[in-house]
Write a structure and sequence with these properties.
single chain, about 700 residues, alpha/beta, 6-stranded parallel beta sheet, 25 helices, about 40% helix, globular, binds adenosine-5'-diphosphate, binds magnesium ion
């Protein structure tokens, strides 16, 4: 059981002051794992993506071209917009030498006049920009009378947030979470701690979230490195423990001829690609061997992983055991089920779908048939491996990862009674060397080809200024019967609501194309989402405006156009995933990356990579290379799944250290008793490696 010392960190975030049900629901979208309630710990592990440095206090005649500034001056006058106009409200502030304009859109007069009394001094902090050769600050972050200027934070963390959750509210929640950190023993060995001169775990969290200098929150600074090291140490320790355990618990050597799989092949209207065949052969060899299979199946979206998995499942079924496929969302589980059901049927295998939403009678029936073995294949969400689901004999667990599952969830799965063979499917193009070092002894199979008949995708970069031309062309495509995805981003650092932007785009496209346009976003009810998706699939909807929720594996093969708005705000891995939604049928497809000009040099280089290649592995490598030059936003999405803090681009050098440290710990405290072992146990819990703790006790 988890030591009670950690209880404050494992309390729901909602128990923090300033976090009510509404904020908790928003937090769940950015930090909740697999839809779980966000905890205080999750909030603490949501590190800032950058900082705002407000220490730059130039006189008004010396304002920089851009960046955050804090300025002081007298409110000279207000320039309200003429009635009925959509122009912003301007306030002129001067310091005798020069002036700056403070600009507000949709401002209310009474509020503005109270905030900026004419003739009084005000301290204003926010991002400066130049418009018509004049400096201005649009919607400043802080406006204070000089006597309150001390309240202004000098260095302020900037977090990735979500529509409706303001940075202020998020920062307050994190500050409250910092107050909950208990006094914890050190788990890093004294030798190591001395060598690195890192702050303690608690101190590191404080530095990162409440920075006194910009370096405090820097991913390469000591505080972030300490936290990344802790995370890596927890994973390496868990891997070492699991590995030690796995050697004892040998796998089953399944015996099968391949007859069932043959019936599936016969039912397919196409032949398998060479890389599918190779992956199938590698998996079959694993299944037949006595060592337990833990294999990663990597392949781009649409490369045909599901079929490879199904063949493996058929082998295990032929050998007399059961196989389960776990998907990260209900929608995906249903989609997998729809693919698998007719093929399983053709092969004479019973397959059942288990989600959180089954009707009770149906569910009872399923559970009974899974328990007595009449059902050989089960498809479901992660609920599959929790609670009441009992398999007669689970031989193979397939996890469709799609970014969402961490290593520890996989371990939870394998600890369910027996140790089934494991196949993890991922579309994340992690380079092979990284797979080995981050996940340990996982074998890797790769699908490197696209199924035959697929057309290359024509990718274009288009400036938002030319949206009129774009919609003209889309109109023509719709008349020709083509279907369009239109993606709007949903992670914003500003208070402007991205959701509002998606809704606005939806309204604008509706005006052009009528009710052929449908909308899906994360805050819709599941029923509404399903309805919109259903219309899009069936064809009464032809333009699907969506926030990035469609990223997760939606399959509509006749969609041929993908528009990504604000493409510069997406990680490359994410763009690659999105683009994989099209080009699935035989028709020629186009991906339009809409960006807002001007595009910075790095941003342009990144988008150009997308235009030049469809090779996910190359995109991942280029992304890694280019990301060194800034642009922190978007890195999270392309990090290594299962890790929240450690990043392959900046923390890879810590891996060998963590591995040594883990080895040392296990060698020294073979029984894992004593004080240090107790501290390491806390570490494992903190990073969600609960299952490894169990192995520790056993060992
Ligand atoms: P992934 O899971 O890798 O994203 P899927 O397994 O869902 O890809 O396959 C995407 C689509 O391609 C499915 O409609 C599937 O039936 C089809 N498909 C899979 N393999 C082949 C193949 N060898 N030839 C033609 N189509 C294929
Ligand atoms: Mg798939």
């Amino acid at each position: 059981m988890r030591p009670s010392l950690l209880d404050p960190l494992f309390a729901p975030a909602e128990t923090l002051s300033g976090v009510g049900p509404r904020v908790a629901a928003l937090l769940k979208r950015i930090i909740g794992e697999n839809g779980a309630e966000p905890l205080v710990r999750d909030l603490l592990f949501h590190l800032p993506s950058s900082v705002t440095d407000r220490r730059n206090r130039p006189p008004l005649w010396q304002l920089p071209p851009s960046g955050a500034v804090t300025v002081e001056g007298v409110v000279e006058r207000h320039d309200p917009p003429p009635p009925g106009s959509r122009a912003p409200w301007r306030v002129v502030i001067s310091d005798g030498g020069a002036a700056v304009q403070v600009v507000y859109f949709h401002a209310r007069a009474d509020w503005m006049l109270k905030l900026y009394p004419v003739g009084e001094r005000r301290v204003v902090s926010g991002p400066v920009e130049w418009f018509d050769l004049r400096p201005q600050i649009v919607h400043p972050d802080y406006v204070l009378p000089p006597e309150k200027a001390g309240d202004l934070p000098e260095i302020e963390p900037v977090y990735g947030t979500t529509a409706g959750l303001s940075p202020k509210v998020l920062r307050k929640a994190v500050a409250a979470a910092l107050g909950k950190i208990p006094r914890l023993p050190e788990w890093i060995s004294p030798e190591h701690a001395a060598r690195e001169a890192w702050p303690s775990f608690a101190e590191a969290l404080r530095q990162v979230h409440d920075p006194r200098k910009p370096e405090d929150a820097d991913p390469i600074g000591p505080a972030s490195r300490r936290l990344a090291f802790d995370e890596l140490l927890a994973s390496q320790l868990a891997l070492a423990l699991v590995r030690g355990n796995a050697r004892r618990a040998r796998g089953e050597a399944w015996r099968f001829e391949g007859a069932v799989a043959e019936r599936i092949r016969a039912a397919l209207p196409f032949g398998l690609t060479a890389s599918q065949e190779q992956a199938i052969a590698e998996i079959a060899a694993d299944l037949r061997s006595e060592t337990r299979m833990v294999r990663l199946l990597q392949g781009d979206v649409g490369s045909g992983k599901t079929l490879v998995a199904l063949i493996a499942m058929a082998h295990v079924a032929e050998a007399g055991a059961q196989a389960a496929l776990m998907a990260p969302t209900e929608l995906l589980a249903r989609q997998h089920f729809a693919t698998i059901a007719p093929l399983a049927d053709a092969a004479g295998l019973e397959v059942r779908l288990l989600t959180g939403k089954d009707r009770p009678a149906e569910r009872r029936e399923s559970l009974a048939r899974i328990a007595d073995g009449r059902t050989s294949l089960v498809v479901g969400t992660h609920a599959l491996f929790q609670g009441e689901v009992a398999f007669r004999r689970l031989g193979l667990a397939v996890v469709d990862e799609q970014h969402r599952f961490g290593v520890h969830q996989r371990m939870a799965l394998s600890s369910k009674g027996s140790t089934p063979d494991m196949l993890v499917m991922t579309a994340t193009p992690i380079p092979r060397t990284l797979v080995l070092s981050w996940f340990g002894d996982m074998e890797v199979s790769r699908l490197t080809e696209k199924p035959a008949g697929r057309q290359p995708i024509d990718t274009r970069l288009v400036s938002l200024d030319r949206i009129g031309e774009l919609t003209d062309r889309i109109g023509a495509a719709l008349d020709a019967g083509e279907k369009v995805y239109w993606v709007c981003p949903l992670v914003s650092e500003s208070e402007q609501s991205d959701l509002a932007a998606a809704e606005e785009r939806f309204a604008a496209l509706r005006r052009l194309f009528g009710d052929r346009v449908v909308l899906v976003h994360g805050r819709m009810s599941a029923a509404k989402k399903d309805e919109a998706m259903g219309r899009f699939r069936a064809g009464s909807g032809m333009v699907l405006v969506a926030t990035t929720v469609i990223e997760v594996g939606v399959d509509v093969p006749d969609a041929t156009i993908m528009v990504v708005e604000h493409a510069e705000r997406f990680g490359l891995a994410q763009l690659h995933q999105l683009r994989g939604r099209i080009g699935r049928g035989t028709a020629r497809s186009t991906c339009v990356l809409l960006y807002r000009s001007p595009l910075g040099e790095v941003a342009r280089a990144r988008l150009t990579v997308m235009r030049e290649t469809e090779d996910g592995f190359r995109i991942a490598e280029e992304d890694l290379r280019l990301r060194g030059e800034g642009d922190l936003l978007g890195t999270r999405q392309s990090g290594v799944p299962g890790f929240r803090i450690a990043r392959p681009d900046v923390h890879a050098d810590l891996l060998p250290l963590a591995r040594d440290e883990a080895r040392l710990a296990l060698a020294r405290d073979a029984g894992m008793a004593g004080e240090r072992a107790a501290a390491l146990r806390l570490l494992l819990y903190l990073f969600g490696r609960d299952d490894a703790v169990r192995l520790m006790r056993a060992g």
